[in-house]
Amino acid sequence: MFATQLRESTREAHDAAESAPFIQQLMGGSLQTRHYVDLLLCLEPVYGAMEEEFRAHGEESSVALFDHRKLDRHARIVHDLAGFGQIPRSRPLPMAVDDYVAEVREAATSPQRLLAHHYTRYLGDLAGGQAIAARLRQHYDLGPEVLTFYDFSDLGDLVHYRRRYRDLLDLVPWSAAEREEFVAESQRIFALNAALFHALGERQEPTQGDSFFASERAHQPR
Description:
This protein has one domain: Up-down Bundle (Heme Oxygenase, Chain A). The protein has helices at 2-18, 21-28, 33-56, 62-66, 74-83, 95-107, 111-126, 128-140, 158-171, 176-202. The protein is built from 10 helices and no strands. The protein is mainly alpha-helical. Helix 1 runs parallel beside helix 10, helix 3 (33-56) runs antiparallel to helix 5 (74-83) and helix 7 (111-126) crosses helix 10 (176-202).
């Protein structure tokens, strides 16, 4: 089945991105809240570009079969950034962000390539993203009002939703070439994520404590 083939074909690229030191340190609690905010600032233009391109595709496109407005994350990222007293593009972003956005725009010329972005980001948010949210609550004392990015409660049972998504992938009558295009784009996306995490890791400062956002977080429950 294609969903299984896709998962196996992208496993190495996925694991490389997931094991990036920045992500491991963030989930391990050894960074600071501001590092997570830097991640949100980088993801904001990526999701903005993706969701704009998704909406631009007509109802006859294969993208429309999967796209659901309850999946949209861009507005939630902007909301969460505001909770930290930040606005999009309030700091210089790594070049890796521009590369990622450019890939999204280029992928929009092909439904298969664009849908690969839909698959890698949203299914990642629905699975590993939930683990990240749990670690952010645990290690950085963040409340739900600044973690709406990871809140998919409107979708109901997330395990069931992911299963239905993969079942639908198996049913779309793509040609072998179209499926190869989907897989290749997914591998590129994981590589772009790895590059972004590497760039964020290089921007870290060897300081301790978490007072940088203390004033912005004063309203959050303890």
